[in-house]
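Project standup — Tuesday

K.O.: blocked on the structure for the chain from last sprint. Re-posting the sequence here as requested.
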Amino acid sequence: MNGRTTVAHQVLQFNEELAEAALELPSGFKVVNPFNGPQKGHVRKVTTAFYQKYYNDHNPRRLVLGSSPARRGTAVTGVPFEDADLLESETGIEIDGYAVSRSSSGFIHDVIRRYGGRDRFYADFVMSFVCPLGLVKTKPKGNDVNCNYYENKELQKSLQSFIVDTMKRQLAFGADTSVCYCIGSGENYRFLSRINKEQRFFEKIVPLEHPRFITQYNPERKGDFIEKYIRALRGQGD
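H.V.: unblocked you, prediction finished:
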């Protein structure tokens, strides 16, 4: 390396900054932060191994953005859209005792494989989130369930400055801003488009259906959606 900070180092430093994030949310909502939670040492080990494996260079990459991490997905591994089972089997990184299977990560796994495998995919893209910390809301019976930043107007308003600031921080990794891929063609895409119009983060945003929508409601068309992802990621359009 020529002395410049690698993408891996910048992502890991960003995660350390997220560990210190202090957010004031409306009553009934909480942050899920894998970088300062009870498993933070484990998460740091996994993320360090992952990013040093795939991002130990200075090359610009395009962003693929989900809405926010799932509490039983990225909140376990610290790596966007990678569950523990797939991380261990595909990268050789040991994640003993933290196996969580997610339909979303399984679909993305299939897209990555179709694209040409992890080495090729992660050489071209960084996966992250519009809101890079997970969120849960507490139900009347006291149980916590996943929620998205856009599900409540007050919640969205309380997070907007955090979202804008962390997006700017991620673009500072040296991202290719010619295009961004938005996982979630509904509210996530609408919100990202609105702040992009204000902030001019990206020249273009391409919406893609969320894997949960595909696997739960259109499983028979999974192959078609994988091909749609591949065409978009390769810049081939519909």
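K.O.: great, moving the ticket to review. The chain has a mean pLDDT of 90. The CA atoms of residues 136 and 147 lie 5 Å apart.
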